[in-house]
Every structure is written in structure tokens, then in C-alpha cells.
Specification:
The complex is a heterodimer of chains A (344) and B (363). By secondary structure, chain A is an alpha/beta fold. Helix content of chain A is 44%, strand content 18%. Classes of the chains: A alpha/beta (344), B mainly alpha (363).
Chain lengths: 344, 363
């Protein structure tokens, strides 16, 4: 009896969630539901659109995932509008199989371009081949995939290793007599973590006055970062640099410093470094509470637009892999304009 | 002579210390304490310093434990009641903390996500969060008590959806509160060097102990947990008692949520209080309470919560990779589960008997 009731409820929940997906799909909005089947939206939009619009199908990760993703999604939405000559449909999912299903739908709908930020690097060969056979051009953004590069026109990505290198070079430029670094890492194995950790690890191994006080993963989590730094403070080990691989973790670290009255920022005891350029983080720089913030550029839309324009006008894309410009901001030189322009 | 016999009998009763519930968390605590004492006595050093606003604060590993263990202790109170009454656990507390925290920030911020001044008094925000968290608790409770869904399955719904709901409450914006008065709840009250979360936890503990002493809450909860139908025959309403336990857990969630968002004066929907449900359940188990419901010992659960934080802090101190922490906790869980099986208990009491044969003969 209990089991039956449970089964009925579970199926009821499933039906509800199905209709929820269906409901959000036509709107093609940045709904929280992973509306992978928003490909449904395309035919409806198709009938209304005039012939000269370029049809693009955009597959992205869930915009709720992070501030980076929210900014990324917003940027794409602002670029691919009817006014700019595009007829765009969006599909969101953090799961690879749902993204592939969405891609197949876009192919069936006959989009001109397929823009893809893949959840996982593997498993895309077949569906991209289908796209190629159907004459659909594929452009990757933000994330690369394990597939022959003949299957896509271009990929627009961030160079995480370069982000790390820029940050470490900046730190080396501070000419501290000694570098005792608390290194707070992101989720182990993620591209951002590997790139940002790699540069620091190499430098620490090469220089005698660079030491790692502790190297811990806080999994992008501010609370964990706070505990890690708290633990170092409790142990009484001296340190003068906090290298946090994103802004959230830097914020957590700073909360621990404040509790122990350890001064941080420009000209203070501890150098604080973060990544991602959240708006609030850049404001911390502006107030000189932090020292450095490395950009991870979520604004790929203009690059994609340029590539599509090139192809449409009959030109060829000269570069397969386009690495975006990414800045690193120094608290002593950042301006309010930078905060407004680059903050996400 | 007679007094001597009394002492002897008490001693024999003392022999059943293994069966005393609070033995488990105390033993775990002593074990950890001893380990730290041998490995590095500086673990126990507490220093008086000043924080960046110039107020006196005590710092050291022990203070860190009292500080960070407090949310867990508060959650353990509610989780113990839920476990005792329903014989199951609520796995949605982490997601519910995200919701409660999000509500607090939403009320404090109003429409602007970066307000210069607070848009509402903190107490109002907190009370609204209490109501919301209790409503979500009531939702879980209704599913469990009236629809008879297994607690873990029922709370799975909120576990899955909760963080999205939390993000939606604030339009997926990231509110940040700059007013220093909000940071008190997760930091220090100016002039008092002991972390505020510890005081909040102690207030919750005292209220709970008073409620258990002067009302029938504890008795009824245990009665329902031990045998639902016989408690019904005795005039209790088991469904309501279960429902009530989930609502009370909701209240605990709101308090823990206030501390969590106050610590950073901000929120990250996807990671705030991540995996805290597992720690809360572990605290109940570490308190020697049966996860199948029935009798419970509230103080043992609360002590269990601080023991978990003791373990976490110890592991951080020895630079154990933080993503490996759950593995160590898993070892503790395995040890506990094995220890609580009838077989292991039988074995332990046998050893106990062997140790005390002489006394027994005298008595």
C-alpha cells in the first residue's frame, strides 16, 4: 500500500515537472528549470520570423550555476536579438545527455548556427557530425570538447593557465621579500582550478623565497575557505599572501582575517588575490581591501557575432581557437569605470 | 555496612557505562582531545586579541570549534526530534538553510541588492525567515505525517528544489550587506570576546531543555517513535507529533540560517551549508540515538555536534585535504553503526562483565 502511494506520488511529481519544462520552454527564458527541450520553442519562433534572420540555437549551462554563467547568459541574450538580425533559441542544462538531446532538436529544427558550451567534453562527435551533414555550423564557446576540430568552425575560450600566469606574474612584481602563500583551490580537476593552480605551483617550485603555507581545496565555497584560513591563523603560522582561485573563497578568507585583526589590502600585512571579477569583488579592490582580481571573461557574444558575420559575408575564419583577452586588476590602479565595465 | 552495599551496587550500575548513551560522544571527545594533546599541545592555546573593529576576541582552535560547531548543534536539536518521532531523517536542512538565509537577506535588502542601510530591522527579517522555514518544515512534516511518505524520500523534494527556490527569492542576485550590525550574529558582540554563535546555540539548548523538562514534548515524541499505534491507543495524535517535530526543525534551520548568512554578510545559493544535513544526522548518531526513532538523549546529540566540529577542526589543523574530510567522517559513521549493533553491544558487555567479576561477587 505504502509502495503504491509512493509510486503514484512519484509519477505525479514527474508529470508536474514535465509540464513545468514544457511551460518554460516556449518562453525560452533563463528559467531555473533545466529546460533542455526548449528546442520546442524553435518551430514557434520560426513561423513568426522573417526569412533574413539568422537562426541560432544556443546550448548553455544553467545560468544559476554561478555569477559567471549568469553574466554569460545575459551577454548572449543581449547580443542575439531580432534587432541584431538573429532568431535565437536557448536550451539550458548542466547534464551532457540533456544538452545532446537539445542539440538534436536544434538540428531537426534546421538552425543555421549551433552555439555550444558543453557540460562535458566527451560524447559530442556523433551529434556534431549530424549537424555538419545538415549544413549547420557549430561554434563552441567557453568550453572545449574532445572532438576533431573539423566538426566546428571556431571555439572561443578562456585560457585558465594564462589567467594563473598573469596573476602569479603580478604577485612576483610586488617584490615582497618573502612569499608565504595560503593557496585556496577550487574544485579539484576543474579547468579553472588546474590552470590557476599550475602557474603558482611552478613558481613556488622554482623560487626559494616562495613557500606554500597551506594548499587546500575549498571547492569554490566561502565557508570552507574561511575555516581553512582560520585554521592557519589558529596555528600561528605566518603568511602574507592569500591566493584564492575565485572571489567567493577570497571573501571567506578575508572574513577570517577580519576576525583575527590581520590587516589586508594595499600596503597592509596580507595580499589578497581573487579571480572572476565579480562586481562586489572589484569594489573591494577599489576600497583597497583586496589587492588583485583576475578576470575570467564571460563576454563571448561579440566574438561569436564577429565570426558569424565573417562566415555570412563569405569569408573564412582564420583562427580555430580564439582565446579571449583577459585582464588582471590591481587595486592601486583600478577605476570606477573598470568596475562598471568588467564587473559581472 | 548497608552504605557500603549501596556504593557497590552503584558501582555495578557504573559497569553498564557502555550502555549509557552519553558515553559514545564523551568517549569520542576524549579520544580526540587526547590525540591532540599528544600530537600538539598548542592546540589548546587560547589567546586574547582584538579583531579589526577593535573589540576583544578570544582565538584559538577551541574557540573555532565552539564557533563553527554552533550551527550544527542547533540543527542537531531539531534533527534529534525528527529522528525520534518519525524514525527517519530530514535531508533537506542544507537547502532549507539556503532558503532561510535568502529570505533574511531579501527582507534586509528590499529591492536593492546592495543597500547602504538596512531596509528592515534584523529581528523582522529573522522572524520572517522563521515563518518561511517553519512553513517548509510543515510541508515536509505533512508529507511524512499525513501522507506517510518515508522521511528521506519526502525531504528529497526540498533537497532537490530548495537551492533553486533560494536563488529565486532574491531573483538570483547576490545581496551583500555592508551594515556591521548584521555581522554580529556570526561574529562577536562588541566587548564580548566569545563568538556569538555559541551564545545563540546555548540559548537554543536551554530553551529546548526547559521545553523537554516542563512539557510533554519529549515524552510524547519518544512514545510515538517507540510505538506509533500504542501511543495512539493512549490518546496521543502521532501524526501531529511528527508534524510538530518537522516544524520545530524548521525553526532550528532559521536560526542556523541567520548565523550562516551573518558570517559572510552574503550568500551563495549553491554552496551555503553544503552537506550540513549529513553532519546533522551524524551528530544524532554520534549522540548514541537510534536512527530508527524512539528514545533520545538531546544533550548527547548536541555534544555529538561539537565532537564533529572538533574532528573537522583537527583534520584542518593537520592539513588533511578538505575534500577528503567526508571520508574520515565516513569512518566514524562505520564505527558507530557497528558499535550500535546488538552483536557488538553483547560483546562489549561481555568484556565489561569480565572486568568486574570481583565486584559482582561482593555485591
Amino acid at each position: 500500500m505504502k509502495k503504491k502511494l509512493l509510486a503514484v506520488l512519484m509519477s505525479a511529481v514527474m508529470v508536474v515537472s514535465l509540464t513545468a519544462c514544457g511551460g518554460s520552454a516556449p518562453a525560452a527564458s533563463g528559467d531555473a528549470a533545466p529546460a533542455a527541450d526548449s528546442g520546442d520553442a524553435a518551430p514557434a519562433a520560426d513561423s513568426g520570423s522573417s526569412g533574413d534572420l539568422i537562426k541560432v540555437g544556443i546550448i548553455n549551462n544553467d545560468p544559476n550555476e554561478s555569477g559567471y554563467r549568469t553574466a554569460n547568459d545575459k551577454d548572449l541574450k543581449e547580443m542575439f536579438t531580432k534587432e541584431n538580425g538573429y532568431d535565437a533559441s536557448f536550451a539550458y542544462s548542466l547534464k551532457n545527455d540533456e544538452q545532446i538531446t537539445a542539440a538534436q532538436k536544434f538540428i531537426t529544427d534546421g538552425v543555421d548556427y549551433l552555439l555550444l558550451s558543453a557540460a562535458d567534453t566527451a560524447g559530442w562527435d556523433t551529434v556534431l557530425k549530424d549537424a555538419q551533414d545538415a549544413g549547420i555550423r557549430v561554434i563552441l564557446f567557453d568550453r572545449t570538447i574532445d572532438a576533431p576540430d573539423s566538426l566546428y568552425e571556431a571555439s572561443i575560450v578562456s585560457d585558465m593557465a594564462k589567467e594563473g600566469q598573469t596573476a602569479v606574474d603580478w604577485l612576483a612584481g610586488q617584490n615582497l621579500p618573502e612569499y608565504n602563500v595560503i593557496h585556496i583551490q577550487g574544485v579539484m580537476g576543474s579547468a579553472a582550478q588546474q590552470g590557476r593552480s599550475g602557474a603558482l605551483d611552478t613558481k613556488v617550485a622554482a623560487e626559494s623565497n616562495w613557500n606554500i603555507v597551506t594548499q587546500q581545496t575549498a571547492e569554490w565555497n566561502a565557508e570552507k575557505a574561511q575555516q581553512i584560513v582560520q585554521s592557519v591563523i589558529d596555528a600561528g603560522t605566518p603568511f602574507n599572501v592569500i591566493y584564492a582561485e575565485n572571489d567567493d573563497m577570497a571573501k571567506g578568507a578575508v572574513a577570517a582575517l577580519d576576525k583575527a585583526n590581520i590587516s589586508h589590502g594595499v600596503g597592509k600585512d596580507v595580499v589578497v588575490m581573487g579571480f572572476d571579477c565579480n562586481k562586489w569583488a572589484l569594489e573591494e579592490l577599489l576600497n583597497k581591501n583586496w589587492n588583485y582580481d583576475g578576470q575570467c571573461n564571460p563576454f563571448q557574444a561579440s566574438y561569436i557575432d564577429e565570426i558569424i558575420k565573417t562566415i555570412e559575408s563569405g569569408g573564412t575564419v582564420s583562427q580555430k581557437t580564439i582565446i579571449m583577452d583577459e585582464k588582471g586588476f590591481d587595486a592601486s590602479s583600478i577605476t570606477q569605470e573598470d568596475v562598471d565595465k568588467y564587473g559581472i | 555496612m548497608s552504605s557500603e552495599t549501596k556504593i557497590q551496587t552503584r558501582k555495578v550500575k557504573g559497569g553498564s557505562i557502555f550502555r549509557n548513551q552519553i558515553f559514545i560522544p564523551v568517549a569520542a571527545l576524549l579520544l580526540l582531545a587526547l590525540f591532540n594533546l599528544i600530537a600538539d599541545p598548542s592546540f589548546y592555546k587560547i589567546t586574547l586579541g582584538y579583531n579589526s573593529t577593535g573589540d576583544p576576541v578570544l582565538s584559538g582552535y577551541l574557540m573555532t570549534i565552539l564557533d563553527y560547531g554552533s550551527e550544527l548543534a542547533i540543527l542537531a536539536i531539531g534533527m534529534t526530534l525528527v529522528t525520534a518521532a518519525s524514525g527517519g531523517q530530514d535531508i533537506s536542512v542544507g537547502a532549507a538553510i539556503a532558503i532561510a538565509g535568502s529570505v533574511i537577506l531579501r527582507v534586509l535588502c528590499g529591492h536593492d541588492s546592495r543597500p547602504e542601510t538596512l531596509q528592515a530591522p534584523i529581528i523582522v527579517a529573522f522572524l520572517v525567515a522563521c515563518v518561511v522555514a517553519m512553513l517548509f518544515g510543515a510541508f515536509n512534516g505533512a508529507l511524512v505525517a499525513y501522507f506517510k511518505i518515508q522521511p528521506m524520500v519526502a525531504t528529497l523534494i526540498l533537497f532537490t528544489a530548495g537551492r533553486s527556490i533560494a536563488a529565486w527569492i532574491n531573483n538570483n542576485e547576490l545581496p551583500i550587506i555592508s551594515d556591521p550590525s548584521f555581522a554580529i550574529y556570526g561574529g562577536f558582540i562588541p566587548g564580548i570576546p566569545i563568538p556569538t554563535p555559541f551564545f545563540i546555540a546555548m540559548i537554543c539548548v536551554v530553551i529546548t531543555m526547559l521545553a523537554l523538562k516542563f512539557t510533554n514534548l519529549g515524552l510524547y515524541t519518544q512514545a510515538v517513535g517507540i510505538n506509533e499505534s500504542s501511543s495512539k491507543l493512549n490518546g496521543l495524535n502521532p501524526a501531529f507529533i511528527k508534524f510538530l517535530s518537522f516544524v520545530l526543525l524548521g525553526l532550528c534551520v532559521a536560526v542556523a540560517g541567520l548565523i550562516k548568512v551573518s558570517r559572510l554578510s552574503s550568500i551563495n545559493y549553491s554552496v551555503i551549508a553544503k552537506d550540513i544535513e549529513m553532519d546533522a544526522i551524524l551528530a544524532v548518531a554520534l549522540g548514541g540515538n537510534s536512527l530508527g526513532g524512539g528514545k533520545f538523549n538531546m544533550l548527547a546529540s548536541i555534544l555529538g555536534a561539537y565532537v564533529i566540529q572538533f574532528l573537522t577542526t583537527t583534520l584542518y589543523k593537520f592539513n588533511v585535504q578538505s575534500d577528503a574530510l567526508p571520508a574520515y567522517k565516513a569512518v566514524v559513521v562505520i564505527a558507530l553503526v557497528v558499535m550500535s549493533t546488538p552483536k557488538a553491544r553483547e560483546f562489549m558487555s561481555k568484556i565489561g562483565k569480565k572486568l568486574k567479576p570481583a565486584e559482582r561477587s561482593v555485591a
